[in-house]
Design goal:
By secondary structure, this protein is α/β, with parallel strands linked by helices. It is built from 19 helices and eight strands. It has a five-stranded mixed sheet with strand order 1-5-4-2-3, with helices on both faces. It has a three-stranded mixed sheet with strand order 6-8-7, covered by helices on one side.
Amino acid sequence: VFHTRLPPNSHAVAPNTLHPLLKQAQHGHKGASLTARLAHFSILPMMDSNSPVELPDAVRNALAITKRGCAELLVEADWIAKLTRSHQTGQPLRIKLGLDPTAPDIHIGHTVVLNKLRQLQDLGHTVIFLIGDFTSRIGDPSGRNATRPPLTIEQIKTMIRLAAKYTLARLLERDDFTKRFKEGVPIAMHELLYPLMQGFDSVALKSDLELGGTDQKFNLLVGRELQREYGQEPQCILTMPLLEGLDGVEKMSKSKGNYIGIQEAPATMFAKLLSISDVLMWRYYELLSFRPMSEIAALKAEVEAGRNPKDAKVMLARELVTRFHSASAADAAEADFALRASGGIPDDIPQVQLALPEGGAGAASGAQAGRAGALHRRRRAHDRTARRAHRRHGGRRPHPQTRRGHRGVAGRQTQVRAGDAGLSRASPGCLWLISPAG
């Protein structure tokens, strides 16, 4: 038997929404756990219990945009109710995203949730991008030994009042806390306060929806519960998946080397995007592209019908390079990629002057080549990425003679490509001009 308190102005939920939970109950799931999950739902009798309420087209479209690429939407029925009310009253909803300033650079994986914030803003809602300067001070101290700034008396009083709104048992439901507690790994007191601090931001901002990564689900739900405690309408929760990196396996991370930085050079960004697998490409389209899903579905159908997937990948690369740089930069990056992939020499390649002894013949000394090659290690990685992406789509390796170039002769200026004897440490993206000593 399930008892549900019906709050004022709650909205109906189609019966099939609860079906998975009721099915779990039939298979012997613990009542306490099920009750906690059912607490997320608001249930009212419907005029026609066999079918959900018809939604206005604008609400249906907003719901589809909200759910595009998302990992989870809690509670969908509540979000539909908020969207419907906003549509009827013209009052925009308040959408919150909070991030702690813990790193100086951003990769495209970070932009997944930012894209969703932009999509909701385009629907006419008010978006709030919160920089968690205070929560970043309280954040996980693992591996840190820096002294944190002391709190003021007023801040301490506020935190004590806030702590009274939530129980230790509820905080320990968080997966990582539970695991550490069972394994005897210390949990600092201020770590327990972090979810409360993040949750109270939702109270202060009166947010209707909070966005975050899947790893933030617990903290987002704390905000929902705190809003109830403070007499506010609980926010809905929208979690976005963590984007896979270039390898298609691990999440995108600078430390793993499988990332694309938003400030990387256009040519580098373009080449990296062309190097991803055909399967991962559609994942990137869904989470990173601003193209409508209908257009993406049509493009996918064309590829499945025989169109070269490289065409779709080039379109994605051009879109992202244009977004973070410019359309002209995307044109240049595409041309640079084609040139490098075919073994050509880019126009902007650096030149290094190496002096050979008078009357001698051969390549520059290993020491000189080593010093010059150190200047171009990033180009070496860039060229490898371009050639790998080119071969992925049926391209051929450049002819060996193109790669090797020619030995330098004293008294002349000669173009020498890396890979030739004596220049094995040089960069494939480096043009050598060898001239006599002096």
